Amino acid sequence: MGRKSAGSGRTWRGKSVLAVGAAFVLVFAVIALVGAGGAEAAPAAVGLGTADSFAVLGGSTVTNTGPSVISGDLGVSPGTAVTGFPPGTVTNGTIHAADAVAAQAQADTTIAYNDAAGRSPTATITADLGGQTLVPGVYRGSSLGLTGTLTLDAQGDQGAVFIFQAASTLITASGSRVALINGAQACNVFWQVGSSATLGTNSVFVGTILALTSVTADTGTSAAGRLLARNGAITLDSNTVTRSTCAAAASPTPTATPSGTPTATPSATPTATPSASTTPSGAASSSSPTASATKKSPAPPAQATAAPTAISGPVVGATSNAPTAALGGDSGGAGGGAGSTAVTGAGAGSGTSGGAGSGGATGSLPFTGALAPTQPLVGAGLAALGSGVVLLFLARRRTNE
Predict the structure, then answer these.
(1) Whether 140 and 95 share a structural domain
(2) Is residue 282 situated within a structural domain?
(3) What is the pTM of this model?
(4) Close Cβ partners of 284 (under 8 Å, ≥ 6 residues apart)
């Protein structure tokens, strides 16, 4: 009876272990699935094609009043009229009126407009964007307005993209502004407008406007980006429009972690050993001093030089996809040598035999690598841990049996 009871106890314990282990595996599998699906892909920038070089591009006309300054190309197509230049000026660009360049830029603007309009929204926004701080994403609204300040926070990512979809109009109030923080760039902000856009007096605007009809910039407005209208007019009044360009994202400083410091060991330095002194066998008379002749020791030969040794191979454990890192080193022997940990090492020194020597080793240790996103892998790792717990309990159960 006792044996049966003990066996039943072990069976119960074994089933309990299996149940606990299965629960661990289930929980961690769910975590893995959530981690893999919870990371939403960030939106990509809207490709502008040849329209990228334009600061202002109209469909029917481009008109200007006052000393507007346009930095970048200015053009119109299929319309032909560009008026108000001068007094307006175009810097860092050219005026293209109904030429092939403007026509191609309009075609690319249409492609960009359709791309921006077809993006799936990540959030629906209120009509007035003033006083809000938004992170990268695609935002959709019917008609959009801006009173006060809209802040766009890139959260440290210089490549972060913001896309705004206005089904009808975009209207900013006088003195309103769009502010960029934490690495946000004007080149990555896009406004797709279903009809027309109006920028209020003395407002500060950021981003590329892709308007189906027209764009009007009231007196004193400045814009960092582009004003692109597919079918209608661009109307300017003493404005500053600067074509935005993206600054290169800062890359992390590569850190090479070699598995071991390679050291070139030069060959042993030969040391000259003078021959023993010799004494003639003949002895002088008792009244004469003993004569002793000693053979002169030869001069030590020149010290051998260690040949440089090329060292190459991939480095294990690189922490970023970075350019090639170089590592070199050498070591001098007792007969005279020197070492250097620079990319090329060479040196001279003196040893016990007084000879001069040099030694060096050069090497190049290329490495590549990238840190993969870890969030989708956390759950999988925890699931593996749960499986390990199950195996451990089963092993202990067998040992007890």
Answers:
(1) yes
(2) no
(3) 0.57
(4) 290, 291
